[in-house]
Amino acid sequence: MYPTLLTPSILVDIDRLQANLDGMQAVCDTNGVQLRPHVKTHKMVEVARRQLQAGAAGLTCAKIGEAEAMLPAFEGPGRSREIFIAHSLVDPLQAPRLQQLTANLDELRVACTSEAHVLALENLAEAAGLELQVMMAVDTGLGREGARGTEDAVRLAQLISQQPHLRLRGIYTHEGHFYGVPPTESDKELTAWHARLLATHAAVCAALGEKIDLWPGCSVSAKRLAAMPGIDAVRPGAYVFGDMSQTSTTGVMTPEAVALHVLATVIDTPEPGLVLLDAGSKTFSSDRTAQNIYGTCQWGDVTRVSEEHGFLTGPRVHELRVGQRITVMPAHVCTVVNLTDSVTIVRGDEIIDNWRVDARGKTQ
Ligand SMILES: Cc1ncc(COP(=O)(O)O)c(C=O)c1O
Question: Over the stretch 47-83, which tens digit does the pLDDT of each residue have?
Fold first, then answer.
């Protein structure tokens, strides 16, 4: 299996990747909803370029450094250069980079995430000499950033609107808590959650006297939300590759659609029922499923990792031999990609390219 590659390597199946990009875009297009994918999953200019080529209205980034790294993806005719940085920016040291980024884009939006954050963002905007276009966060159950409840959201919206250097353009949410909702309850939960979100959005619009955008949607919810009323854009990330969180945990993707795998080598079989792989936490990351699984394959699961060892256990691991190469689906793909300089692009058994992870480690 890929005898010319050293292991561990990260494999991306080009046809599956393209099918995932096109599939999400098609659902958005059918429903007249914009797709603004989050690039934190892939961090690759080539993937962002393909997302924009397929019809994405813009990109979502976590950090300024990620946004800077993605600029070449907009090259080419007819692309609107729009980025939303979905993170709480507070540091006046970032002012020159924000100026530069704004100058390189048609539109830059940034997040405002609570009343405690407003002043810091206003100061940053003033230091940059910019009127920042703002998406305010509403927490919908994850318990991370965002206004807690409708009253809080209305107050936050009014406070942002009073700032001379901030212009409120919309509401965003990140419903990461959906990764903990069993697939059987997901539709019911989403319907109730969507109704609450629309009510909050309507109250904010009424208080402001204007309609502002509503941009929710992670990979678990995006396709279903796009078909529901009142949504202007969705911002999924992990859908491009898929992983165990998209397949076994939430059931929004089939294993056959997963485009990224870790190619690893069996380096030892020290006792019955245990196989050691040459890929540990420095390949899979420390992220795991709720069942403590770091990755899965047809022979079993990676149930423990040290830095450069994966512990593969399961009913069929006795079939594996030292030196054998296997592919493993990771638990959480985003953190896997951030650990590698490049990925190997394959079509079936054929190696066709190698793509740099351009925004790897761009956490500033
Ligand atoms: C603010 C925000 N938007 C969108 C996403 C995309 O989520 P997912 O990768 O689950 O699609 C994330 C993921 O962490 C996020 O934090």
Answer: 999 999 999 999 999 999 999 999 999 998 778 999 9
Computed from CA positions of residues 314, 318, 319, 320, in that sequence, does the dihedral angle turn out positive or negative?
A: positive
- Considering only CA atoms, which residue is closest to atom 2 of ligand 1? 174
Closest by Cα among 114, 185, 179 to 141:
179
Q: Ligand 1: which of 51, 89, 218 to mutate, most ligand atoms within 8 Å of CB?
A: 218
Task: Locate the ligand 1 atom nearest the alpha carbon of residue 239 and give its number.
Answer: 11
Q: Is 221 in the pocket of ligand 1 (CB under 6 A)?
A: no
Pick from 73, 43, 20, 16: nearest CA to 335: 43
Please give the radius of gyration of the chain, using alpha carbons only, rounded to the nearest integer.
Answer: 21
pLDDT confidence band for 21 (50 / 70 / 90): very high
87 CA: nearest ligand 1 atom: 1
Backbone angles phi, psi at 13, to 5 degrees: -80, 115
| Model pTM above 0.85 | yes
Q: What is the pLDDT of residues 81-104, one digit of tens each?
A: 999 999 999 999 999 999 999 999
334 alpha carbon – ligand 1 mean position (Å):
10
Alpha-carbon span 131 to 330, nearest angstrom: 41
Element (H, E) at 123: helix 115-128
Cα 179 to Cα 23, 140, 174, 243, 250: the distances in Å are 21, 13, 11, 12, 6
Judge whether 183 and 251 are in contact, CB under 8 Å. Answer: yes
Q: How far apart are CA 208 and CA 206, in angstroms?
A: 5
Q: How far is CA 298 from the centre of its chain?
A: 26
- In short, whether 236's Cβ falls inside 6 Å of ligand 1 is yes
* Residues 160 and 173: beta-carbon distance below 8 Å: no
- 8 preceded by cis ω (within 30°)? yes
Ligand 1, residues 63, 174, 179: which to mutate, most atoms within 8 A of Cβ? 174
332 lines ligand 1 (CB under 6 A): no
